[in-house]
Amino acid sequence: MNILKSFFVCGLLAILISCGNSGNKEEQSTATLANEAAKGGQIEFAESVFDFGQVKEGEVVEHEYTYTNTGTAPVILSQVSASCGCTTPSYTQTPVLPGKSGEIKVSFDSNGQVGTQQKIVTIVSNADNRVTTIQLKGEVLPK
């Protein structure tokens, strides 16, 4: 009788374990497909560094960086952040299809920023090059 119970418990465990693995494989397959679908986008900037030259302290410098999706899947920017609070980025919120372009506008407030400046904006996306940067640099002259 104990042997019969042992076989029953082992059989039940085998069924439960195989069901659990089946679900994991399906989740893994779904995750793999999602990752593959996200791959293929590629961000390429027309210019990744903008030198604004010299400005007087207190002036606001604005520049628009244009990028093209040179890949095969849509690119979505998930985060665009600046290295300092004096620099404010805004960017294309909609997916950029292959062959199409998007933009990132950067505004730099030079108030209190005298001297040589190099501001870095970090872009996080679903593209193959997931993290990329652009730069704004120049010199702020005192008032």
UniProtKB/TrEMBL annotation:
Q: What is this protein called?
A: DUF1573 domain-containing protein
